[in-house]
Amino acid sequence: MKKSFFALILTFFSTFLCQSQDDGWTLSTGKVEQYTGVVVANGRIGILPEDKPFEVRSVILNNVYEKESPLGVSKIILGMNFGNLEMEIDGEKITENNISDWVQTLNMKEASFTTSFNFKDKAKVTYTIYALRNVQYSSYIDFKVDAKKDIQIKVTGKILTPEVFQDPTSTFRVLKDLETTMPILQTFAKSQYGKHIVATSATFIWHDINSVREHERPELKHNKVSEYDNRLSFERKVRKGQQSEFAWTAAETSTQDFADPQTESERFVIFNLLTPRKDLLGEHKKLWEELWEGDIVIEGDLQSQLDVRLALYHLYAFSRGDSNLSIAPMGLSSQNYNGHIFWDTELWMFPPLLVLNQDISRSLVNYRSDRLGKAKQKAVNFGYKGAMFPWESDDTGEEATPSWALTGTFEHHITADVAIAFWNYYRVTKNKEWLVERGYPMLKEIADYWVSRVSKNADGSYSIKNVVGANEFAANVDDNAFTNGSAITALNYAVLAAKEVDETPNPAWNEVASKIVILKFPDGTTKENQSYEGEIIKQADVNLLSYPLDIITERENILKDLKYYESKLSPEGPAMGQSIFAILYARLGDSKEAYRLFKRSYEPNKRAPFGALAESATSENPYFATGAGGMLQVVLFGFGGLHITENGIEQKNEILPKEWKSLTLKGIGPEKKTYVIK
């Protein structure tokens, strides 16, 4: 049955209102019909809350992979779910059907997700989920029950193990050292095909643990429903007008990171158990405060401010500077794209993080450096020299694309994308030690790859044949514009890097770079590939030669390519193409067109109620971190006028949309500069 007009209006306004908080930091919602959650994450674990009391949809473990099927490729693991709890008041279980005044709030500043509601006329319940930034393999759910009458509460914490796991062992033990007791609920099991052991430990915390005598604390009861469903509960009376405050903390580890994840997960929980809440959460908030030293402030357009902050929040939440890990297209929000690493990181997410947080950006490039050996093996395996990176990467550094997908065998621009990110990292940080140890060795191997990859034409020029370009709708084409342009850029950067470390660059690098062809139509418009005749394209390709590659720099040519290819973009393709067009118009001084395309780059992709981004206007796979990177680049490198140059970060021709009163970019570069555009 179709919704009534009145119901549609209510849905519209509830969606709108939930994104209109006036502080620029919080997103709140009441109960809505269409619900897409937002992730609480710390770069190691991602927790996706639901719109039902005490429920969490999923827990994702970063860089922990198992095969998706016996004949399939790797897939990021869906971890044990430690976030589903139950609460009973006076013997009645709380559900979405017996509560009122439901509100959920994402506090981006503190990276916390709070749910509150009233249970009949008996109690107000509030709980906040944290993925602790300071204790990176653990979470913390902080509860407060305000009694309106004398009530009896029963709370049950659970470790739910997906049925695909093998041989789970579920236990409850009370560990003791001197007079300190440490109750630990735990499950550990093998992943689906036995690659990893995953362990989860959890316990309840009462915040008055240091003042309440042992015999006065609530009694814990263990209930093992099955090895896949491990539970721990307690009961407590709460008098009218009083509060009951407690927490549920859990840690999840695996053999990807620990030789003994079972005991390590216990140690994290014990640390959280015996660290005062104020100190534990205070350190988490302090670390997020440091992250937000790199920030974007938009005055005069609250909705754009919230949208931009949500994008930046997700990039920060999906990464960390001490991990040497990268970011998958969907971050830690889902298993989409198998949690693999693509060019999405280097071309889309890396640039905004590079100018706002050099620690995280270093992690992203080091992820590739750590896998250079496998890239060199791949080059040899396909008859090339140097290093050849996989289109989809996992923990191994080998090709992780499904074999049926032509991208995995032929989308070679990824190797140039890595080089571009590496040189840009050096240009911003001027970290000479890193350049010597990691940067130049990478750039050298990639340059050698492209020299071996090109084909020499009769006229002395060079072609790159048989590739899938950024426009993945065209497979096995010759001289794709972006592939050729990125190879030219990678070769040129290798020459610059060699000189920086006092090495003699291979003369072939400059020779090949200067003669790789960039094809044109008769009217001067750049041609997407040798056989291109105006077909619909998946995403920006040719226009990437103007930004970020700076190969096509003349205004007339940039405009010609913009006007031709905007109409060719598929409405079902990812939104990043619109971001590139917006940046170019901003750099050309056209704020009206830039703002139009900025909004087009993400607004159709927003999903109620918080504004989580899907990959395209027609897809349902949020959160799309790649799209977040694209929209942030519009603000930083378009409106903000930032350029990454041999002199570091420079500002040129900044421009402000008429819809904004001002734009402030904070914490830019190693000097943490502030730029104000009015």
Automatic annotation (TrEMBL):
GO molecular function, one term: hydrolase activity, hydrolyzing O-glycosyl compounds
Protein name: Glycoside hydrolase family 65 protein
Domain Glycoside hydrolase family 65 central catalytic: residue ranges: 309-504, 527-602
Keywords: Hydrolase
Statement: the UniProt record of this protein carries the keyword Cell membrane: no
An example Gene Ontology biological process: carbohydrate metabolic process
Alphabetical list of InterPro entries matching this protein: 6-hairpin_glycosidase_sf, 6hp_glycosidase-like_sf, GH65_N, Glyco_hydro_65_M, Glyco_hydro_65_N
Organism: Gillisia hiemivivida
Glycoside hydrolase family 65 N-terminal domain sequence ranges: 40-136
